[in-house]
């Protein structure tokens, strides 16, 4: 994730291409004012592969049903073209939804615990998954420890 306003980066194809982004993971897919209204058709002809997750930034939203899918998408994107893929994971502001999905990816694919993962991501940028997402990440942590 880049320290720019996520919606403006996600809709700036020229910047995404300059950053050599190969994949987009929109963790706030939808067409209301609280979502970022892009889709696969938005990126047609750009060489950027799009994936969307229709999430809302409210504590009662069950983002955990998308943790595995999000982790799979990130892993596939990074492995793209001989490990030269670059994925831009975003939500509206890059603070809650997208951070939770990136944290879930690190926990699932790199076997980091939730505290270490939160600390690592916070060293790179300011994040603040809402309380519901944090609770879901703690539940994921318990599940990952058992595996």
From TrEMBL:
SUPFAM superfamilies: (Phosphotyrosine protein) phosphatases II (SSF52799). PROSITE patterns: TYR_PHOSPHATASE_2, TYR_PHOSPHATASE_DUAL. Pfam families: DSPc (PF00782). It comes from the Eukaryota. GO terms for cellular component: cytoplasm. Residues 65-125 form the Tyrosine specific protein phosphatases domain. Keywords: Hydrolase, Protein phosphatase. Transmembrane segments: none annotated. The active site is at 91 (phosphocysteine intermediate). Its EC number is 3.1.3.16, 3.1.3.48. Residues 1-146 form the Tyrosine-protein phosphatase domain. The keyword Hydrolase applies. InterPro entries: Atypical_DUSP_subfamA, Dual-sp_phosphatase_cat-dom, Prot-tyrosine_phosphatase-like, Tyr_Pase_dom, TYR_PHOSPHATASE_DUAL_dom. It is an enzyme of class 3 (hydrolase). PANTHER family: AGAP008228-PA (PTHR45682), DUAL SPECIFICITY PROTEIN PHOSPHATASE (PTHR45682:SF15). This is Dual specificity protein phosphatase. It comes from Hemibagrus guttatus. The lineage of its organism: Eukaryota, Metazoa, Chordata, Craniata, Vertebrata.
